[in-house]
Amino acid sequence: MIEVHDLHRHFGGFRAVDGATLKIKEGSITGLIGPNGAGKTTLFNVIAGVLKPTSGRVTMAGRDITGLPPHDLFHMGLLRTFQIAHEFSSMTVRENLMMVPGEQAGEQLWNTWFKRRAIAEEERRLAARADEVLDFLTIAHLADEKAGNLSGGQKKLLELGRTMMVDAKIVFLDEVGAGVNRTLLNTIGDAILRLNKERGYTFVVIEHDMDFIGRICDPVICMAEGHVLAEGSLDEIKANEQVIEAYLGT
Ligand code: ADP
Fold first, then answer.
1. How much is the ipTM here?
2. Which residue's C-alpha comes closest to atom 6 of ligand 1?
3. Probe ligand 1: pick from 9, 10, 14, max atoms within 8 Å of CB?
4. Which end of the chain is more exposed for a tag (fewer CB within 10 A), N or C?
5. Is 154 contained in some domain?
6. Residues 73 and 181 occupy one common structural domain
7. How confident is the model at residue 87, as a pLDDT?
């Protein structure tokens, strides 16, 4: 589904991504691991259009998407989740979800004057969809809570929920488990597995928690020093000498 070929992203003389080549299979939940500074987040940002590559190529379903801006990729179904931005924290969880689809009738001045009924209808539709998403994620009880009051794990679920408001095909999740308690991490893992099985989402997940990776990811790709060291099942990766060395070296 995604092919990354000899990708480089340099910051001045520093090669954060240094010749990364990898494939993400459609329908997989691929884990991306590697020591701190390996270039995982930078790779995500280049694929998702947040950063331009220094050189190299990224394709999605055979189409060259190298350097396309995030909103173009969004319309193709490629999403990278971000923490809920500061300005959205005073909105409710449901409102945060309703914001996602964009290009709503109410955003055009003409419509706000002349198409009030259409706008009200659109809002009802979006609110109903948001409530379905919250149900799916087992956080329906948080619909009217301000997003800023959510715990770290609940915010991660809300980030996942945002991808469900549009027709995502492939979702890049960065550090799902950071600061999240075990129970919520399991809920997040379940949601990812269900989205993968029931809705056909492909996921790429950066995560340090190996139990979590082992539970939901296959295959696992290990990066170090800006490129791919090894790919395989988590057990294969853990037994790989180069991988062990890369982790010990940090
Ligand atoms: P990882 O996600 O694997 O921990 P990162 O992609 O965050 O790795 O970072 C890889 C390296 O690139 C790090 O050494 C980091 O300091 C460097 N780096 C990342 N972003 C920038 C930037 N904007 N400017 C300079 N150096 C950066």
1. 0.96
2. 39
3. 14
4. C
5. no
6. yes
7. 60
Are 97 and 72 in the same domain? Answer: no
Residues 80 and 107 placed together within one structural domain of the fold: no
CA of 104 to the centre of ligand 1 (A): 36
The residue with greater pLDDT, 118 or 144, is 144
Contact 198, 205 (CB under 8 A): no
Give the Cα separation of 94 and 105 in Å (integer).
Answer: 18
Share of the chain above pLDDT 70, in %: 92
**Whose alpha carbon is nearest atom 5 of ligand 1?**
39
Assess whether the C-beta atom of 41 lies below 6 angstroms from ligand 1: yes
127 lies in the same domain as 244: no
The reported pLDDT for the residue numbered 241 is 93
124: number of Cβ within 10 Å: 10
Domain count along the chain: 2
Same domain, 130 and 57: no
User: Cα of 29 to ligand 1 centre, how many Å?
Assistant: 24
Is the C-beta atom of 82 inside 6 A of ligand 1?
no
33 Cβ inside 6 Å of ligand 1: no
For residues 171 and 233, state if they share a domain. yes
11 lines ligand 1 (CB under 6 A): yes
Distance (Å, rounded) from C-alpha 226 to C-alpha 194? 31
Is 116 a residue whose pLDDT tops 80? no
Three-state SS string across 7-46, please? EEEEECCEEEEEEEEEEECCCCEEEEECCCCCCHHHHHHH
- Start-to-end CA distance of the chain, whole Å, equals 32
Q: Residue 105 pLDDT more than 50?
A: no
Ligand 1 touching residue 36 (CB < 6 A): yes
